[in-house]
């Protein structure tokens, strides 16, 4: 967890975390074996080469994109993110049954009607997973608002306040939680209210466009999660080009532009690249504030010793040729409307998260009846 003079850098309230990972997580100690026979004898053991993951941790804060506790123990990320799809997957594993049981007991007690009990149990389940994750990571966990509230600012604020209250009842301070909201206009405005009026910091997800990124920065949100891989998916499916070199990958290009814009104009919102399809995309964004990576790709990076170079640099960003943009609601909606990829992927992402949320509720409803 990081130190910084700004109040918005991946922290909630006045807790602060550094954009560079702590050395205890990112360093790779190498030792040389001294010869015990003769100073003239050559060394027989070579210095161990740092893995690509260890090298990447020197440039970027690594976040685990999973609800699987075992993966966090293995790869030792600084932070972790969750969403309805990840929680649904984890909830089906036997080792997490005790969390389901606790959530069901809470729902039975807190709700009156069946649907109230389901809603209460679902909220508690997200928080319980978050609490367990925080036992494994030194930083923060992101907990997502119901995707069905993506176009309702007031309801999103109310749900966020409820989730934070549940965390605090369980002894977790809000400085260890980020509230995830979809990067709709309403979601961004909800985040602005939470940040400015309630000292609750937010992670704006399902972000695919420059317009969304600018709106988030102007709203003063803590962090954004641009979806690299899903941008690539759209271009592969909808254009003639089916393969891209990492630096020309449209998702990488998008995140690079956003990062440079933020650093050039001094915005405090930090960038966490997300939704990666391959290691090449990750390596091409080395130097980004944070990268949230799936266990599979963390494993690939751990096994690799390919050298990692810095591609994103805050100092160099200041000389990039970019014009400042002001983003009001009309401009936001028009720019998003004109960007077919972003419009398609935002609506698709909301639908998919909402569908997994409903599946989770169906599971809980069956246990509550």
Please list the strands of the largest sheet in the order they lie side by side. Answer: 1-2-3-4-5-6-7-8
CATH topology: TIM Barrel
Number of helices: 16
The percent of residues in helical segments reads 40-55%
CATH superfamily: Aldolase class I
- What distance lies between the first and last C-alpha atoms, to the nearest angstrom? 42 Å
Q: What general outline do the C-alpha atoms trace?
A: globular
Query: Beta-strand percentage?
Result: 5-15%
> Topology as H/E string?
HHEHEHHHEHEHEHEHHEHEHHHH
Major β-sheet profile:
8 strands, parallel, barrel
Catalytic activity: D-sedoheptulose 7-phosphate + D-glyceraldehyde 3-phosphate = D-erythrose 4-phosphate + beta-D-fructose 6-phosphate
Keywords: Pentose shunt, Schiff base, Transferase
GO molecular function, one term: transaldolase activity
Pathway: Carbohydrate degradation; pentose phosphate pathway; D-glyceraldehyde 3-phosphate and beta-D-fructose 6-phosphate from D-ribose 5-phosphate and D-xylulose 5-phosphate (non-oxidative stage): step 2/3
Description:
The chain has 369 residues and is α/β, with parallel strands linked by helices. The protein has a single domain, classed as TIM Barrel, CATH 3.20.20. The chain contains 16 helices and eight strands. It has an eight-stranded parallel beta barrel, surrounded by eight helices. Helix 4 runs parallel beside helix 16, helix 6 packs across helix 7 and helix 6 crosses helix 16. 46% of the residues are buried. Catalyzes the rate-limiting step of the non-oxidative phase in the pentose phosphate pathway. Catalyzes the reversible conversion of sedheptulose-7-phosphate and D-glyceraldehyde 3-phosphate into erythrose-4-phosphate and beta-D-fructose 6-phosphate. This is Transaldolase. Keywords: Pentose shunt, Schiff base, Transferase. Pathway: Carbohydrate degradation; pentose phosphate pathway; D-glyceraldehyde 3-phosphate and beta-D-fructose 6-phosphate from D-ribose 5-phosphate and D-xylulose 5-phosphate (non-oxidative stage): step 2/3. It catalyses: D-sedoheptulose 7-phosphate + D-glyceraldehyde 3-phosphate = D-erythrose 4-phosphate + beta-D-fructose 6-phosphate.
């Amino acid at each position: 967890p990081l130190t910084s003079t700004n109040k918005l850098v991946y922290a909630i309230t006045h807790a602060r975390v550094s954009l560079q990972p702590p050395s205890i997580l990112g360093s790779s100690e190498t030792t040389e074996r001294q010869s015990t026979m003769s100073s003239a004898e050559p060394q027989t053991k070579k210095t161990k080469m740092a893995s690509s993951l260890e090298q990447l941790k020197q440039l970027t804060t690594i976040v685990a994109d999973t609800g699987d506790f075992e993966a966090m123990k293995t790869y030792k990320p600084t932070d972790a993110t969750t969403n309805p799809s990840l929680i649904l997957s984890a909830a089906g594993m036997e080792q997490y049954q005790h969390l389901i049981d606790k959530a069901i007991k809470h729902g039975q007690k807190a709700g009156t009607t069946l649907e109230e009990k389901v809603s209460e149990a679902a909220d508690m389940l997200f928080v319980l997973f978050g609490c367990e994750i925080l036992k494994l990571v030194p930083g923060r966990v992101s907990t997502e608002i119901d995707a069905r509230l993506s176009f309702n600012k007031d309801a999103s604020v109310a749900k966020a306040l409820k989730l934070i209250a549940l965390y605090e009842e369980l002894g977790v301070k809000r400085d260890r939680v980020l509230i995830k909201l979809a990067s709709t206009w309403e979601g961004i405005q909800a985040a602005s209210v939470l940040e400015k009026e309630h000292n609750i910091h937010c992670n704006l997800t399902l972000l695919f466009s420059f317009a969304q990124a600018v709106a988030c920065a102007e709203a003063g949100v803590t962090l954004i999660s641009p979806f690299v891989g899903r941008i690539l998916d759209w271009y592969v499916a909808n254009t003639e080009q089916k393969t891209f070199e990492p630096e020309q990958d449209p998702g990488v290009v998008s995140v690079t532009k956003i990062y440079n814009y933020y650093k050039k104009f001094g915005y405090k919102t930090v960038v966490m690249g997300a939704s990666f399809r391959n290691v090449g995309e990750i390596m091409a964004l080395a130097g980004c504030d944070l990268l949230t990576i799936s266990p599979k790709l963390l494993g690939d990076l751990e096994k690799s010793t390919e050298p990692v170079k810095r591609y994103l640099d805050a100092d160099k960003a200041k000389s990039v040729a970019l014009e400042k943009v002001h983003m009001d609601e009309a401009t936001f909606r028009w720019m998003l409307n004109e960007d077919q990829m972003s419009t398609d992927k935002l609506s698709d992402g909301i639908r998919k998260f909402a569908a997994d949320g409903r599946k989770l509720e169906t599971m809980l409803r069956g246990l509550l009846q």
